[in-house]
Amino acid sequence: MDNVRILAIESSCDETAAAVVEDGHRVLSNIIYSQIDLHTLYGGVVPEIASRKHIEKINPVIEAALSEAGCTLSDIGAVAVTYGPGLVGPLLVGVAEAKAIAFAAKRPLIGVHHIKGHICANYIEHEDLKPPFMTLVVSGGHTHLVRVADYGEYEVIGRTRDDAAGEAFDKVARAIGLGYPGGPKIDEAAKQGDCNAIEFPRAKVNGSDYDFSFSGLKSAVLNYLNHAQMTGDAVNTYDIAASFQKAVVDVLTEHAVMAVKQYKINDFALAGGVASNSALRASMADACRSLGVRFYCPSPVYCTDNAAMIGVAAYHEYVKGNFADYSLNAVPGADIA
Ligand code: KG4
Ligand code: ZN
Predict the structure, then answer these.
(1) Cβ < 5 A residues, ion ligand 2
(2) Using CA atoms, how far apart are residues 318 and 331, in angstroms rounded to an integer?
(3) Short-list 189, 201, 200, CA closest to 239
(4) Helix then strand then coil, % of the chain, to nearest 5
(5) How far is the CA of 199 from the centre of ligand 2 (A)?
(6) Are 210 and 147 within 8 A, CB to CB?
(7) How large is the angle between the packed helices 237-262 and 182-190, nearest 10 degrees?
(8) CB count, 10 Å around CB of 261?
């Protein structure tokens, strides 16, 4: 299907975003209003504040996306929106907005699953990437190892049993005084530290080779800090950041490699906010090289929450005629399958 332009909206957490995407890969505009500065004050996302900010920003962000794409609503073939998972208030703002625009412009409405959006971000810059492939979605809310069997067909191979990888980065960063959001700060600090300085645990999950658990690792870092405080030992923040990051990256890489081997997959793609992590990118790229598997990862702007990825995922629903009606609702705990 040619020249289908989708107006996409993403508001599941603390980014108010809108984009216009043509034919599932040409990004005509990608506007992101990040609320990070607002939430930094509280050390994390405050849902009520996020909802209010989304309401304030969503119309200007959509107008900017249409204008940058050189479009009006009459050029748009469908309106897509993230319906879940995410924070219920923020999701509702996007869903209500998308329904209103779809109704007023008489265009079909498409509900998009946020994690599928992250995965589809890989199609934007890598036209050669086609299912089947294995993907690791690592973000502030999710850690999923997923086999993409075909466009729109996903099989979850493993997931976190407790904290998401990004959540662990954010919590550890706060504990060692690096602030919010922790991922990029740990990534930077780790470059000046020794990743073998402290032996933090690599958790195994009973009953599943592929599931993850990061809460024990987070507790190990907190225990290390408490112990040092009690004994009066000096702590080296850079070494903690580097050793913690290595523990996360080792586990993520090990599970991904196991899945790629077991399922005999030739292509592997990273996705989600933590996919920006330099150590994780390097480790997965290395592992894929040794396995003879092609490695893909979106540019940082498409790793973090954005609406272009929602427009890409929506295109594959559009092609299949999977449209939503006006009963579309926010589903904070939406499952991927
Ligand atoms: O995908 P995303 O923007 O939002 C969610 O869907 O959660 O991911 C945000 C998460 C945050 O936890 C942030 O700390 C983490 O991604 N992150 C990173 C890096 N950049 C962002 N984690 C590690 N290293 C990074 N460079
Ligand atoms: Zn996300």
Answers:
(1) 139, 305
(2) 20
(3) 189
(4) 45, 20, 35
(5) 30
(6) no
(7) 100
(8) 12
pLDDT digits (tens, 9 = 90+) for 281-324: 999 999 999 999 999 999 999 999 999 999 999 999 999 999 99
The residue whose C-alpha atom lies closest to atom 3 belonging to ligand 1 is 304
* pLDDT tens digits, one per residue of 238-279: 999 999 999 999 999 999 999 999 999 999 999 999 999 999
CB atoms within 10 A of CB 126: 16
3-state secondary structure of 191: coil
**Is 158 near ligand 1, meaning CB less than 6 Å away?**
no
With beta carbons less than 8 A apart as the criterion, state whether 280 and 303 touch.
no
| 216 token code pair | 């024990």
Distance of alpha carbon 98 from alpha carbon 103, whole angstroms: 8
CA-to-CA distance for 191 and 199, rounded, in angstroms?
Answer: 17
| Alpha-carbon span 234 to 232, nearest angstrom | 6
The distance of Cα 97 from the centroid of its chain, to the nearest Å, equals 22
Instruction: Report d(CA 285, CA 301) in Å as an integer.
Output: 19
* Tens-place pLDDT, residues 200-235: 999 889 889 999 999 999 999 999 999 999 999 999
Outline where the chain has alpha helix (H): 36-40, 47-68, 88-105, 114-125, 165-175, 182-190, 215-231, 237-262, 278-291, 300-303, 308-320
DSSP-derived 3-state class of residue 181: coil
**Rounded (10°) angle between helices 182-190 and 278-291:** 70
CB 138 within 8 A of CB 166: yes
| Cβ of 170 less than 6 Å from ligand 1 | yes
Neighbours of 204 (CB within 10 A): 13
DSSP 269-300: EEESGGGG-HHHHHHHHHHHHHHT-EEE---H
Q: Is 83 helix (H, G, I), strand (E, B) or coil?
A: strand
